[in-house]
Amino acid sequence: MVQYYWVSIPERGGNIDHNPTKPETSPFDGSGFIDAEQTAGSFIQTELREETGLITMTSKTTTEPKKTEKKKHGILRAFLHILTFLLALTMIIGTAVFLYARYTKTHYEIRFYQETSKKVSANIRIAVISDIHNREYGENNETLISDLRALKPDLVLFPGDMVIRDQDDYQPVLNLVSASAEIAPCYGVLGNHESERIYYDNDKDLPKAFEKAGLKLLRNSQEEIRIGEDTVQLIGVEGTAYGFEEYGGRDFMEKRKVNPSAFCIFMAHIPTLFEPQLSGYDFDLGIAGHVHGGIVVLPFIGGLYTDEEGFFPKFTAGKYIMDKQQTLIISAGLGDSKPFPPRVNNTPELIVIDINRY
Known about the structure:
The chain is an alpha/beta fold and 358 residues long. The chain has three domains: 2-60, no CATH class; 64-104; 108-356, Purple Acid Phosphatase, chain A, domain 2 (4-Layer Sandwich). Helices cover 24% and strands 25% of the residues. The model is unreliable at 1-9 and 25-54 (pLDDT under 50).
């Protein structure tokens, strides 16, 4: 936009008249002049043309405020789009986790392991029911019991956490033990939930109830059984990795009787008890639970967290080889002690171990 003001041009060295008479029309377009107030907020550039007697005032209206405002709106829109996407993604993931958590309360998988030993002459099949936490699969656990019957194990092991500490009614798991004992001999160890009920809540009847149901509890003790022509030595150790001596585990292990011809199975609820405490002793197979597979299982990484080892733990679920080439199998368990955090990519499992000579 161009404005024209008429001024008197004096002789060189004279003064310019700052109050010239304004012509009524532009010498170019005949439109009349635009007052300077109309160009407020604009950048004014003035050029003096002495030879014409005109001062040309060039007004350049800047667009920077509008551009800044548009940029702010653009950033806000982008932020809202990202926020909407994240909210939608959160809802999708939350729904998927909720549905999966419901699925794992009624479904489990059967996981098989194969072991060999020169100490056995024929196949020995062991079923492991770990960390069931009073859960029922089907009415009165009929689904689980039906699978046990079909699998025909020679031995059923319960490596702890059969109950939930704050639930006084643990009849469902007692019924499961009774039904399992009709299929095969049942042996087990105490988990932290049983120990807390016994030692902190003074539930002295709990061990008696399990014994009455048909579960032989190995509390820093051992027992030898015959399966076909073979001898199996079962050893149960109580305590934690930091309470090995406190709970009498060290004293028991130093005094236990060793049968070098028997296939030896160690049971301890907490897997970190095996390393370094139990791995220094001779045994053929170790059984543990407790860690629920690390709760959340990340693809290509494994379990996310356990109480004993924190994030990205070593011991979560599966098969491990100890220092003296002993095998340790950790169950991801069949239940949960609390609704949160839920299992993610971590289906409950019934473990079956087949031990063969070759």
